[in-house]
Amino acid sequence: MKLLQSKRTFGLSVIQLLILGALVAILFVFSDSNIFRWTHNQTTIHRLNTQIEHYRRQAETNSRKLQELRSNAQDLEKFARENFLMKRDNEDLFIIVD
């Protein structure tokens, strides 16, 4: 026992270093808020922030398109004909599927 206490590293004995190592392992590996869960949460946060930016840009684009459709009747007619397969009375409609 005297041999374990006589060696000192960083001003601490071997027993103190072992206890400190065990506490660090308990705190960072085995606890509820461990390092693995923290890295997983950070990855999830980054992914969700990326999705938020994507949907924010998409909402801005959709708002601009809506404003254009509200302000121009020709654009509204073109949009309706392309997306909802609407046609005039004297037209035939052919649907081509890729």
Rg, alpha carbons: 33 Å
Whole-number total of structural domains: 2
- The number of E-state strands comes to 2
Q: Can you tell me the residue ranges where pLDDT is under 50 for at least 5 consecutive residues?
A: none
Overall outline = rod-shaped
Structural class: mainly alpha
Percentage of residues assigned to helices:
over 70%
Would you list the SSEs in sequence order as H and E? HEEHHH
Major beta sheet summary: 2 strands, antiparallel
What report would you give on this structure?
There is one protein chain. This protein is mainly alpha-helical. It folds into two domains: 1-31; 34-85. The protein is built from four helices and two strands. It has helices at 2-6, 14-30, 35-71, 73-83; strands at 8-9, 12-13. The protein has a two-stranded antiparallel ribbon with strand order 1-2. Helix 3 (35-71) crosses helix 4. It is rod-shaped, with a radius of gyration of 33 Å.
Structure at a glance:
By secondary structure, the chain is mostly helical. The protein has 4 helices and 2 strands, in the order H-E-E-H-H-H.
Topology:
Elements (H helix, E strand, L loop, with lengths): L1 H5 L1 E2 L2 E2 H17 L4 H37 L1 H11 L15
Antiparallel strand pairs: 1-2
